[in-house]
Amino acid sequence: MPHWRLAAALLLSSFAAAQDAGLSGPVDDTDPGGLQLIVANATATPDDMAAVTVTMTSTHWVVAATSHQQMAFATPHAKATAKQNKKAHSKSSASPQASTTRIARGKAKASVPANTTQNAVSLSKLINVTDEWDWTTFKANGVNIGNWQVLESWMNPTWFASIAAGTGAVDEWTLAEYRGHKIMGPILTQHWDTWITEKDVQTLSDLNVNMMRIPVGFWAWGNVTGVMAGEPYYIGDRLSRIQRLIEWGALHNIYSVIDMHGMPGSQSGNDHTGHVGPKLFFQPANQQRSRRVIQVVSDWIDALPKTTRSWVAGLEVVNEPQLSATGSWYDKTYEPVLKSFYHDSYNIIQNGNTPKKTTVIHDAFYPPGTGVWDDFMLNVPKNNLVLSSHPYYHWDTYSDAEAAINTYKSADWFNYPRPLWLNEWSLSLPDDCVNSYTESSDWYQRFWQHQVGEWYQFAGHAFWSIKTIDNPPWSLEILANAIPTAIETVTTPE
């Protein structure tokens, strides 16, 4: 195995400390503790701004930070916590139903059997309390768990078409409306238990993922008074499964952020809000109900077992709200309404029983420098409020996308006075690029490296999504298996 210079380390507070330590030698990738090693043959730079080297192999995302800034990927005691969690987890899984899976590091980890509410409760006893995620210091190496709690037909088109056949259904609302709960209940329950499993979470850990963004619909809490207003959604036992996913993540040293992908009235009218149609989120009645939703979800997080709760890194209060009443990007009719909702949501979350819970707000596709968020709520602690942005380039050529990615290094972004999290992005460009995909091509490698290298300049990223069916640019599951192990190391430009 080749020798590499250690450019950044989890347990060192700066690159200078790592350099002074003179650490070097072969990379040991058999460590079962779950440390996300940050190694590369990189040298220090005099700049305070991070220069990040990113490579991707078939089993790992490897990131090297040559910077005087801390580039931690987990809390200081993550190694000990991970070992304790996995040791307890293995002991708990002696049931004949449990399966053992061989992983890339050559260590066996046992899976928890049975998808039950009781299992979720028992999992919490196996988890150790971890440190609060620090958005001002740590870098999210994340992935979205899309098409799980909020269906998106394009992510599994054949399956969706089969359950919607003959109905005209296009989203979760119309599936429940046309098929009814007796039919959709078993279908959705099976989907929740198979689309994402603990084996998938284990694989994410092996890929050095340290953050899951979990898109959910408000109707998951539909049994709580004041949440629903006659919507036809099937509620079922979603909450125990969301809790279980958080706990699976904790067992594998992965934090979670709850993302309110679908809110009352629909914030954009797109299928990923649960209901295709008019954008009614900004109406007064739905704004009032949305505040109730944030209160209910915040209370639910607070009520989780302490061990589980410690692995929740934040609550994103609404995904991709659209400010325009006309469809024009220049029309920001709903800006005051959204800012009021963000302000109230922040206060609701901060007033909960859990101190310093982080509120994540989406930029509504108006990133720093556009004047919308530049002076918004600057008086609150940096770690308590995070701005998210979704840099998609599906409609660009590669060269245009590359240029657009570089704009994220502009002064407007670097000077923005709070953490920025690029928590949705993909490798998608024009549709004809999908057809050119081959396992031997380095196109995806270069595009991946370029984007991730930029996103680590800020608070990190979350790729969309963990999996899609037959759509590689949007599927980490496909990309992780297809990208060759021998790839060129790319360093972000100064």
TrEMBL record:
Residues 1-18 form the signal peptide. GO terms for biological process: cell wall organization; glucan catabolic process. GO terms for cellular component: cell surface; extracellular region. It comes from the Eukaryota. The keyword Transport does not apply. Its EC number is 3.2.1.58. One of its GO terms (molecular function) is glucan exo-1,3-beta-glucosidase activity. It catalyses: Successive hydrolysis of beta-D-glucose units from the non-reducing ends of (1->3)-beta-D-glucans, releasing alpha-glucose. Keywords: Cell wall biogenesis/degradation, Glycosidase, Hydrolase, Secreted, Signal. Gene3D superfamilies: Glycosidases (3.20.20.80). The keyword Cell wall biogenesis/degradation applies. Residues 91-102 have a biased composition (Polar residues). Residues 77-114 are annotated as: Disordered. It is found in: Secreted. Belongs to the glycosyl hydrolase 5 (cellulase A) family. This is glucan 1,3-beta-glucosidase. It comes from Mixia osmundae (strain CBS 9802 / IAM 14324 / JCM 22182 / KY 12970).
